[in-house]
Amino acid sequence: MRLLIAFCILGLSWLSVAESEQNKIVCYFGSWAIYRSGNGKIEISDLDPSLCTHMIYTFVGITEAGEVAVLDPWADLSDNWGRAGFQKFNALRERNPGMKTLVAIGGWNQGSDKYSRVAAKPALRAHFADNALEFVLKYGFDGLDFDWEYPNQRGGIPADVENFVLLLKELRVRFDEHRLILTAAVAATENSASLSYNIPSISKYLDFINIMTYDFHGSWDPVTGHNAPLYPATRETTATARGLNVNASVHYWLSQGAPAEKLVLGTALYGRTFTLSNSARNTPGSAASGPGPAGPYTGERGMLGYNEICEQQVKTTWTTDWDEQQQVPYAHNGNQWVSYDNVKSITEKANYAKAMGLGGAMVWSIETDDFRGICGNKYPLLNALNHVLR
After folding, report:
1. 224-251, pLDDT tens digit by residue?
2. What mean pLDDT value characterizes the chain?
3. GO terms for molecular function, please (predicted)?
4. String of b and e for 75-84 (b: at least 16 CB within 10 Å)?
5. Band of residue 214 on the pLDDT scale cut at 50, 70, 90
6. Helix, strand, or coil (residue 272)
7. For position 304, what pLDDT does the model report?
């Protein structure tokens, strides 16, 4: 009887570990959203931590001296009448005690140069690891997400590939002493990832890997294309074009030695917009003359948050279509065209992650979902992930 009970306990423990490895929902939060206006403005208290297993606050930076830099002290800290973003973010765990919080270092705007310089010198790597540990403990996070975009690119050097491994190794040693989480956000496609990562080695030191399977197409292209297609389309005939999708990216990372259970599939809670060259030609692959106008909340040409997209579809005459080959929607109105994800495509991606045995899914980013429920239920895309994965 005792043996049976012990076996059952061990079995339950194994199941709980398996669930934790394969049912992550990782929610990035763009902290600058507190500066948005109208229905796009969000407070940290508006976030729903029950929908996430991990939440990641973005971003902090790095200095030439190898120390973590707070990029927006007024928003992040409580000093000098600041808004105490770190403190409020970590307090979300009170509403979901099982949820973990991380802080992300890097991002697109930080580039690669400083990270390359710090990673190149053993003394700076060691100092950074000590400083990062001190920072995470000081502000009460459960870990660090490394978002260096990208080693050996954008001002980096070829030695970055192995220096990044050495930097992660330094962090791993320090973080293990305090049971802290270490993750990274990584380039998805073979064309980019093959330049930046020793995939087996970084996989060894990371708890999980957030693969940024979006931004495959955008207004930088001369024709319309999906932001985050699940599969290639028959119109894509070159090897490069057929690699610009979720399925190809996941298979590349797996083929290079990334454990499936450590890969967390990126999903986009925003769309990429185009201005059509001819409004009568509005299918994927149609000629485009540039980005669409900035949205009222995100304020960036060429992209719209899902909340902006769904509000436009409610108020104006948008035609929505579904690309059967690529398993994603797109919409057009006059000369405006947008590729994005909706509940149906997010559900397809969640089922894909589950079928592939991946560690779960992540969202970039939580504050561009319909968090107010203007178009229906609150957080429809995030809830779709939860419906499948949890």
Report:
1. 999 999 999 999 999 999 999 999 999 9
2. 94
3. chitin binding; endochitinase activity
4. bbbeeeebbb
5. very high
6. strand
7. 98
Handedness of CA 304, 305, 307, 309 (dihedral sign): positive
Dig out the tokens for 318 from the structure.
């948008």
- Give me the catalytic one of 149, 190, 311, 348: 149
Query: Which of 360, 355, 266, 388 shows the shortest CA–CA distance to 22?
Result: 360
Nearest CA among 278, 259, 145, 116 for reference residue 210: 145
**Residue located via tokens 């060691």:** 126
Whole-structure pTM value:
0.94
Distance from C-alpha of 107 to C-alpha of 111, rounded to nearest angstrom: 7
Rounded CA-CA distance 172/143 in Å is 11
E-assigned strand segments in the chain: 24-30, 54-62, 68-69, 100-106, 143-147, 181-187, 208-212, 263-268, 270-276, 288-290, 303-305, 319-323, 328-333, 336-339, 360-364
Q: Is 61 helix (H, G, I), strand (E, B) or coil?
A: strand
CA–CA separation, 228 vs 244, rounded Å? 8
DSSP letters, 304-323, are EEHHHHHHHHHHS--EEEEE
Give yes or no for residue 19 having a pLDDT over 80.
no
| Domains along the chain with CATH numbers | 22-268+342-389 (3.20.20.80)
Q: 142: Cβ–Cβ under 8 A, 6 or more apart, which residues?
A: 100, 101, 102, 136, 180, 181
State what percent of residues in the chain have pLDDT above 70.
94
User: DSSP character for 287?
Assistant: B
Closest of 385, 219, 235 to residue 292, by C-alpha: 219
| Residue range 299-357, pLDDT digits in tens | 999 999 999 999 999 888 899 999 999 999 999 999 999 999 999 999 999 999 999 99
Contact 280, 386 (CB under 8 A): no
DSSP codes, 98-155: T-EEEEEEE-GGG-SHHHHHHHT-HHHHHHHHHHHHHHHHHHT-SEEEEE-S-TTSTT
Sequence length of the chain is 390
Res 15: pLDDT: 32
Q: What is the pLDDT of residue 22?
A: 66
CB atoms within 10 A of CB 234: 7
162 classed as catalytic: no
